[in-house]
Amino acid sequence: MTELFTPPYPQPPRNKRGFITRFITAWDSWIHVLFEKSYTMKMGEIKTPGQHMYIANELELVERIMGQAKEFPKHEEMVTSLAPLIGNSVFTANGDDWEEQRAMVNPAFQHTALAKTLPMMVEAADDLIARFDAINAEKGGGPIDIDPLMTHVAADIIFRTLFSVSLDPAGSLTIHKAFSRFQRQAQSASMLRMYKLPSFGFMARSHKRAREIHKVFEPIVRDRYDQFHRDGTIAHHDILQSLFEAKHPVTGEPFTFHQVMEQVSIIFLAGHETSASLMTWALYLLGECQQIQERLREEVERLAGDAPFTGAAVREMTLVRNVVRETLRLYPPVPFLPREVICPVQMRDKHLEKGAMLVVAPWLVQRNRDNWACPHAFDPDRFEKPENQEMVKRAYLPFGKGPRICIGAGFAQQEAMIVVAAMVRHFHIISPADDKPEPISRLTIRPKHGLRLVLAKR
Predict the structure, then answer these.
(1) Is 114 a member of any domain?
(2) Domain count of the chain?
(3) Which GO terms describe its molecular function (predicted)?
(4) Which residues are annotated as a binding site?
(5) Is 226 a member of any domain?
């Protein structure tokens, strides 16, 4: 049996870090704070001057918390961190407000069905390959930092789905740089709040980065919003148009321009950032695991040959799908899901007071040896094994779980499958032996210093 590859992750210390060390470590990355017991404990507890936190890893608790969205709403800390970028959108809203927003935006996601979006995804993947070919020709081969280019293809796909236009490289680069800085500044501001320290301008800087991102698509939204509300002009039948046409289920009122911008911002953010993270890590894992890459290539060529991908071919790509699923298990784009305790509650031997932060961590649940064999190893075939099917249902939650599961989960996995399949069909992907990525966790899991791969044209 071939030895499984274990990709990089922060090696946890044996004991919990001290108060000061925890602050310094978490300033840069949440997953670096974890210690050995974090990966097996049923329920953990952390106290800071400004926040009392609990991490629930026991599957019964995870199902209870994620299944009761009203009893355990999104925590105010997450809402505050993301507010500059997405405001009070369907992702951060709670209670009746969330239910009403969800009812308004649900019809928009009919535009993300595979039959409608597959041609856009294929075209964006073809454009990505052309860019890599051009970079290889210019550089004469050698490693390429794929991280910003994965941001581009993911942002381009959601741009086409949202607005029916492609995203230019300049806009993509603006988004990649601005969101990286937004994550850095939002992380710092959050840590300072948790330790009851002044923000030192980090929130102001995160607002500035959010404005830089908004400027990329706000003119499109403004122009079409004004045309639609002035004379009923319908430029395209896409997500943006559906948001214009949405009506509040109680009042019948449409979204205001500001509210449309909030919904567009979360759809764009969730639609590109999580997918970019997924595709970056998937290509890295294939670059390290040549046998799996070759098996995947054989599957793609058997089902699609050199022809454009079809929905029927994509549905049959079992190994491609499992590579995507295993990547999501190892590197869930959003590794921690904070919820708020709104009434005192007992969980295991702990009494949680109102206002406490209750965290469900896909990063921990999906790397717990009680749930998965060889939990830190890359093994896409685990999803085909009968003994793992219960854990696939219970201990696999890269897009959340319960009523607030990510509405775009299928869309993200489909685009990742198409991009990964296209890349493997066109390139031999190699991970340089002397250049390994370091995953860090802020809002999402990204490589700290980029991720370089050699893409040799086949």
Answers:
(1) yes
(2) 1
(3) heme binding; iron ion binding; monooxygenase activity; oxidoreductase activity, acting on paired donors, with incorporation or reduction of molecular oxygen
(4) 406
(5) yes
Residue that is written with structure tokens 């869930």 in the block? 332
Residue 393 lies in a domain: no
Domain of 451: which CATH number? 1.10.630.10
CB within 8 A of 417, min separation 6: which ones? 314, 317, 320, 321, 324
Q: Is 41 exposed, middle or buried (0-12, 13-18, 19+ CB in 10 A)?
A: middle
The answer to whether residues 439 and 445 touch, using CB atoms and an 8 Å cutoff, is yes
Q: Give yes or no for a contact between 46 and 53, defined as CB atoms under 8 angstroms apart.
A: yes
**CA dist., res. 230 & res. 228, Å (int):** 6
Distance between first and last Cα of the chain: 28
Amino acid, res. 169 = P
The partner residues of 398 in beta bridges, in order of sequence, read 400
Q: Are 121 and 415 in contact (CB under 8 A)?
A: yes
Structure tokens given for 77: 């800390």
Beta strands 427-430; 345-347: pairing state: unpaired
Regarding pTM above 0.85, the answer is: yes
Query: What does each of the 458 residues of the chain score in pLDDT, given as a tens digit?
Result: 568 999 999 999 999 888 888 888 988 899 999 999 999 999 999 999 999 999 999 999 999 999 999 999 999 998 899 899 888 888 888 999 999 999 998 888 887 777 788 999 999 999 999 999 999 999 888 999 999 999 999 999 999 999 999 998 899 889 989 988 998 898 899 989 999 998 888 899 999 999 999 999 999 999 999 999 999 889 888 999 999 999 999 999 999 999 999 999 988 888 788 899 999 999 999 999 999 999 999 999 999 999 999 999 999 999 999 999 999 999 999 999 999 999 999 999 999 999 999 999 999 999 999 999 999 999 999 999 999 999 999 999 999 999 998 888 888 999 999 999 999 999 999 999 999 999 999 888 999 999 999 999 98
Binding-site members for heme are 406
Domain that holds residue 191: 19-36+67-307+402-457
d(CA 448, CA 208): 22
Contact 17, 35 (CB under 8 A): yes
As a whole number of angstroms, the distance between CA 31 and CA 11 comes to 10
**Within a domain: 330:** no
Return the closest-CA partner of residue 150 out of 326, 297, 274: 274
